[in-house]
Amino acid sequence: MRKLAKSKDNAVIFGVLGGLGEYFNIDPVLLRVVVVVATFIGVGATVPIYLILALVMPDGEASADNTGSKKKQTSPFGSPKGKPKRKEAEKIEEEDWSDF
Question: DSSP letter at 42?
């Protein structure tokens, strides 16, 4: 049986909900939705409980299939973790008033 620990493979902020999802065999996205909805509804204990779990839960280990490969991890928003890609500014002429 798997130990209760923060997830390294399925982490968005601290990996708490990813670790809980792996431990209880529940989709972590479902847990994230429940926590966000509970926070917006006004259940006042969600944020403090999450922060306490982030401090108390031990760090998990990366899964065995990811340790051998140097695969680039991406965030759920599409850009690689670390340095986000920046779009270069489009150059326009200063005297162009055609939009007005």
Answer: T
DSSP state letter for 59: B
pLDDT in tens, 21-34: 888 988 989 999 99
- Please indicate, yes or no, whether the overall pTM of this predicted structure exceeds 0.70: no
Return the structure tokens found at 88.
């270069």
Q: Which domain holds residue 36?
A: 1-59
pLDDT < 50 regions, the chain:
66-71
What is the total count of domains within the chain? 1
> For the chain, where are the E strands, in sequence order?
none
Contacts of 35 (CB under 8 A, 6+ apart): 17, 46, 50
State how far the Cα of 58 lies from the Cα of 88, in Å rounded to an integer: 41
Nearest to 9 by CA among 25, 28, 30: 28
Looking at the domain assignment, is residue 66 inside a domain? no
